[in-house]
């Protein structure tokens, strides 16, 4: 086993290790560690790029806080984000903003719903007419 200790002034964003004939790329974020595991023949830089885009997209979706609680509360978005990044072992996309835009929930368009007095009166008239028809059938 090889232990490599790097001493830099900037914090290391992620690491690449080879463990029991598997290549592991991981990244720390508060109380969360995100891994991508691959065969040793894979390109480490491409795996690191996929991991960075995945974490950046998740950070965009979770409003900057990649922590355990946020990931668990939004697990559906996280899994969709993972699916948009990697599909059946193939890296599909490495653009974090594109991934986040495809995954993000669409906001309901409330401008199309116009409720006013006329709408309520129309609904009331419809209900009254239908009730009168039902009573007339009895």
From TrEMBL:
Cellular component annotations (GO), alphabetically ordered: COPI vesicle coat; Golgi membrane
Give compartment(s): Cytoplasm; Golgi apparatus membrane; Cytoplasmic vesicle, COPI-coated vesicle membrane
Ranges where the AP complex mu/sigma subunit domain occurs: 7-105
Top-level taxon of the source organism: Eukaryota
Question: How the protein assembles, per its UniProt entry?
Answer: Oligomeric complex that consists of at least the alpha, beta, beta', gamma, delta, epsilon and zeta subunits.
Write out the function statement from the record: The coatomer is a cytosolic protein complex that binds to dilysine motifs and reversibly associates with Golgi non-clathrin-coated vesicles, which further mediate biosynthetic protein transport from the ER, via the Golgi up to the trans Golgi network. Coatomer complex is required for budding from Golgi membranes, and is essential for the retrograde Golgi-to-ER transport of dilysine-tagged proteins. The zeta subunit may be involved in regulating the coat assembly and, hence, the rate of biosynthetic protein transport due to its association-dissociation properties with the coatomer complex.
- Write down what this protein is called: Coatomer subunit zeta
* Organism, scientific name: Moniliophthora roreri (Frosty pod rot fungus)
């Amino acid at each position: 086993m090889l232990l490599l200790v790097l001493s830099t002034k900037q914090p290391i964003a992620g690491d690449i290790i080879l463990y029991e004939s598997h290549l592991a790329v991981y990244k720390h974020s508060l109380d969360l560690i995100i891994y991508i595991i691959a065969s040793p023949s894979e390109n480490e830089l491409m795996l690191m790029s996929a991991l960075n885009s995945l974490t950046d997209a998740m950070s965009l979706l979770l409003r900057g806080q990649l922590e355990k609680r946020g990931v668990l509360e939004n697990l559906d978005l996280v899994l969709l984000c993972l699916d948009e990044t990697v599909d059946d072992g193939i890296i599909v996309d490495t653009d974090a903003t594109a991934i986040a835009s495809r995954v993000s929930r669409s906001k309901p368009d409330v401008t199309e719903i116009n409720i006013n007095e006329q709408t309520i009166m129309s609904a009331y008239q419809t209900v009254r007419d239908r009730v009168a028809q039902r009573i007339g059938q009895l």
